[in-house]
Design goal:
Layout (H helix, E strand, L loop, with lengths): L1 E3 L6 E3 L2 H14 L5 E6 L6 H10 L4 E6 H5 L10 E4 L13 H9 L9 H10 L3 E5 L1 H9 L14 E4 L7 E9 L13 E8 L3 E4 L2 H9 L3 E5 L22 E5 L5 E4 L27 H14 L2
Parallel strand pairs: 3-4, 3-5, 5-6, 6-13
Antiparallel strand pairs: 1-2, 7-10, 8-9, 8-11, 11-12, 12-13
Helix pairs in contact: 2-8, 4-6
């Protein structure tokens, strides 16, 4: 069902079951609501599912906002607590996956202030808020230098996401081990994840061995591709679908408030999303919901 958000003059997707409750409650809870923004436009195609994941995780507001509305100053990023950069194929992946999209964020000027949109991103981070990049969104984050942001150097690019070793688009489900030493708030109390990947450029690649050493020493790897027992990180195909160095599937910054991953948590919200749910292999709740719930719980505890 489509309803109008009280925070943005736009129509946004909301499940019917939630609509009757939130339509009455949002106006009086505006000051206490967890507010999420999912940026769309120029080739994103997972914004609806990502916004729904935010709501399933407990957020009261999950607005889908075209990036042009941020650039024109119609919507203000600082009105939100969680920024989601959803999956898709920004600008047709010309110049490399998400490169054009990253350039847009870095150089576009916001009409109402004259500042770069990237400056708004930086203030969002400095305010202690959260950013989640999924697939194409992860690619944006590394190409903007938002991850891993070693020593807090946001904007400095130390890693990239490049072409799969297989030389083709990969659409398959993968097993991941959650690294328990990771500071990521998104993976807190999780031990394993089983999610789909859908990408042609998903290989994590550091600038050099020293960058990888620092990432490892500071435990910034949040997720690794692993065997079906969720134990050993794996480099062999197809368990590691892209050949990522050190089997990296997702990383965070040192604060744990920014995380990016190539697999899609928004694609496994319901047990019927599981490829073998008819065989009784799916859990009652899709594994992807926990990623969003952890973010919402952090916001309630630290930002409201």
């Amino acid at each position: 069902m489509l309803v109008r958000s009280p925070f943005v003059n736009k129509w946004a997707f909301r499940p019917v079951a939630e609509t009757l409750f939130f339509a009455k409650e949002e106006s009086k809870m505006a000051g206490k609501a967890v507010r999420c923004i999912v940026i769309s436009g120029h080739g994103t195609n997972c914004e609806m599912e990502t916004a729904h994941g935010c709501r399933m995780g407990g957020a009261e507001v999950a607005d889908i906002v075209h990036i042009s509305r941020l650039i024109h100053g119609e919507v203000c990023l600082e009105d939100y607590h969680l920024l989601c950069l959803a999956g898709g194929f920004l600008d047709g992946d010309d110049l490399g996956a998400a490169q054009a999209g990253a350039n847009r964020i870095r150089h576009a000027r916001v009409a109402s202030t004259g500042e770069r949109l990237f400056d708004h991103f930086m203030r969002f981070i400095e305010a202690g808020k959260l950013i989640l990049g999924i697939c194409n969104g992860f690619q944006i984050m590394v190409k903007l230098g938002l991850l891993p942001a070693l020593d807090g150097c946001y904007g400095q690019r130390d890693v990239t996401i490049t072409f799969n070793d297989s030389g083709r688009f990969e659409d398959r489900w993968v097993y991941m081990r959650v690294e328990q030493s990771s500071p990521s708030v998104f993976t807190r109390d999780l031990k394993k994840l089983y999610l789909p990947v859908r990408h042609g450029e998903g290989k994590f690649f550091p600038r050099d061995d020293e960058v990888m050493r620092v990432i490892e020493d500071r435990h910034l790897v949040s997720l690794r591709y692993c065997d079906r027992n969720y134990r050993s990180p794996i480099m062999s195909y197809p368990e590691n679908p892209n050949g990522s160095i050190r089997a990296v599937a997702g990383i965070s910054d040192e604060s744990g408030r920014l995380m990016g991953l190539m697999p899609h948590p928004e694609a496994y919200l319901y047990f019927t999303n599981h490829p073998r749910w008819t065989r009784g292999e799916a859990e009652e709740e899709g594994m992807g919901v926990a990623i969003f719930r952890n973010a919402v719980n952090y916001i309630r505890k630290n930002l409201l």
